[in-house]
Amino acid sequence: MWSPPLFKNMINLFSTQKPEQGLKKRPHRSVRAWLTPHLRLGFLAERQACAYLQKRGVTIIERNYWTPEGEIDLIARDRQKTIFIEVKFRSSSRFAPPEASVDRKKRQTIKHVACEYIRKKNLDSNACRYDIITLVRSSLWEKTNIRWLKDAF
After folding, report:
1. Which residues have CB under 8 Å from 2's CB, separation 6+?
2. Of 6, 19, 62, 148, which has the fewest CB atoms closer than 10 Å, so is most exposed?
């Protein structure tokens, strides 16, 4: 099984150099995705969500768009609309549905990062949408239940 080159990237994570212009420096994607089991599951859920969207004719523009204020899991294009997507994975929806974890603060963060992306790329702010994709998989041998909540907030 393949594993990312962690050692070289881990050295960069703990270096004493300060990032340029006082911005937070995010670790390399391969390090973040494989550090802990829950990050690994999140990475795999995002991959599954990408495949699900692409089967439905949606073009993925960016994955894990990051700014110092926050991160958007997926940015996609569907016809003339830009879609900002939050992906949520749960092993069970027994206590609450996965979309319940996208609270007011998380929505504000996503909208703030989306506005920055729109401004940076010179896009039409009226032609955008905020969606949530939920994945629930209670066991390894069961099929993952995927729901796409369009225009969720």
Report:
1. none
2. 19
